[in-house]
Design brief:
Blueprint: H1 54-57, H2 61-64, H3 76-83, E1 93-94, E2 98-106, E3 110-121, E4 146-154, E5 164-168, E6 171-177, E7 197-206, E8 216-224, E9 230-240, H4 246-270, H5 277-302, E10 307-316, E11 319-325, E12 329-334, E13 337-340, H6 347-353, E14 384-389, E15 395-399, H7 401-418, H8 422-435, E16 442-451
Antiparallel strand pairs: 1-2, 2-3, 3-4, 4-6, 5-6, 7-16, 8-9, 9-10, 10-11, 11-14, 12-13, 12-15, 15-16
Helix pairs in contact: 4-5, 7-8
Length: 452
């Protein structure tokens, strides 16, 4: 729809011009008068917002003081609705040059993005490289590392400072080149270099072929902001005690960890606080200790011998914090293959560490189920904490011993190679563990990182 005042095109059925604020949809005879004409006396249809059209700006002072008819004044809600800008998505490309990385801020009249400049050199700032160039035409630096820019998308007012302005569709874009860190230069203290990620995950559990009750418990919590920022917690707990309430211990341990981390990590980060890696590790350790105390108290109250293993992954942006007690495991799988992150708190693991048995002997050793530390077996516990960076296509595998003992590392890799979907991979691993004998309860969570 063309604006009768400024002549620019607007979307069909728009109420007001996105460029000058003029009311649209009027009959031609109702359009604003030419600049050198004097309007007839009586109410006019001037816009209520202070954005005069080119025609109205040329009216004499007397004409501009004409009252706006109240019945013709658009309601505030109508105005804001017409100005709403639907944000672009990560991966969208502007001018075949700027690739949107993330939405930084969104409002009714504007959106702000971080984007990659495909042709701008991050080393020297040269702008005139073209499609197909692998190296900067001015300094010879590789263009593989794209220059970062900020793009402000506005319907009306332009920002105070910008390096480039262009129009695409019905929108204005203002590009600002971000400062590029020098080679080897560390980011400012307290500022992390983050790579936007998103997570997909799957889970599966089964009582196995030789147990009457499933004492395992697994759960997941995920929070992601549209403008970037990621929080995830994934837990696998293997209850111990048989008919002595092992299933109570595994669930209580999981829920206590979540409640502790919700208060110490989740809520502060959502409020905008920045927690350093060391602080996150300490709070994760405190949450696991709180879980052990809770299970221990319940164990004493019930006069039972219940306890639980625990393996978990706390994910904050592009880092994973792994906590472990007992012989449930967390693995990392990526292009380098399968890597076990945790170390079992078991007798057979100590025998392997001291060279008394080979790692392959663990699966058939008569004391393979003897562990020397679990959640709830004593008031205090000493969890292992590991920190590792996450990259796109990394997968974390959290599982109870009923899975890894049955399918072993080779079986894990075989399924991970064959199944790209985390949920299907979990279901297939549980099926394979049952086919191998299903000697214990079987539980697994697979978390996959993807580029946002």
């Amino acid at each position: 729809m063309k604006c009768p005042a400024c002549g620019r095109e607007n979307r069909l059925n728009a109420g007001f011009c996105a460029w000058c604020g003029e009311r649209l949809g009027k009959k031609p005879e109702d359009a604003a008068p030419e600049a050198n004409t004097v309007p007839e006396s009586g109410p006019t249809d001037l816009p209520s917002e202070p954005f005069p059209s080119p025609a109205s700006s040329a009216l004499d002072e007397a004409a501009q003081t004409i009252a706006v008819e109240e019945s013709e004044t658009p309601e505030p809600n109508e105005i804001s609705a017409e100005r709403n800008v639907t944000p672009l998505q990560p991966g969208d490309v502007l001018l075949d040059r700027y690739e949107i990385v993330e939405l930084i801020e969104s409002g009714p009249d504007s959106n702000t993005y971080r984007a990659k400049d495909r042709y701008g050199c991050a080393a020297c700032g040269f702008d005139d490289n073209v499609q197909g160039d692998e190296y900067c035409r001015q300094c010879g630096a590789s263009l593989e590392k794209a220059r970062q820019v900020t793009i402000v998308e506005r319907l009306r007012l332009e920002p105070e400072h910008y390096d480039l302005h262009f129009e695409q569709g019905e929108r204005d874009y203002f590009v600002t080149v971000e400062p590029q860190p020098k080679a080897g230069e560390a980011p400012p203290e307290g500022q992390a270099v983050t790579r936007p990620l998103r997570l997909i995950w799957g889970r599966a559990t089964d009582k196995g072929q030789q147990r009457d009750l499933n004492e395992d418990y697994l759960e997941a919590w995920l929070y992601a902001r549209g403008s970037g920022g990621l929080l995830g917690l994934f837990v696998v707990a293997d209850g111990l005690g048989g008919h002595d309430s092992g299933e109570v211990a595994s669930r209580l341990a999981t829920e206590t960890v979540w409640e502790a981390l919700r208060q110490s990590v989740w809520e502060p980060i959502i409020r905008g606080e920045t927690l350093q890696p060391e602080a996150l590790e300490e709070r994760l350790k405190a949450a696991i200790k709180a879980a052990s105390q809770a299970v221990y108290d319940a164990r004493i109250a019930r006069h039972s011998e219940m306890s639980s293993t625990l393996t978990l992954a706390l994910i904050v942006d592009d880092a994973a914090y792994i906590g472990n007690v007992g012989d449930s495991r967390t693995y990392l799988w990526n292009a380098k293959g399968l890597q076990r992150i945790t170390k079992d708190h078991s007798l057979v693991q100590r025998l392997v560490d001291t060279g008394q048995i080979e790692p392959r002997d663990v699966y058939a050793h008569p004391q393979r189920n003897v562990i020397y530390q679990s959640i709830g077996d004593r008031p205090d516990v000493r969890p292992d904490i590991f920190r590792l960076p996450l990259a796109p296509d990394d997968r974390l595998i959290l599982c109870s011993d009923g899975l890894w003992e049955m399918v072993r590392d080779d079986g894990l890799e075989e399924v991970l190679l064959a199944e790209t979907d985390p949920q299907r991979a979990c279901e297939r691993l549980v099926q394979n563990a049952n086919l191998a004998g299903g000697e214990d309860n079987i539980s697994v969570i697979i978390v996959q990182a993807l580029a946002a």
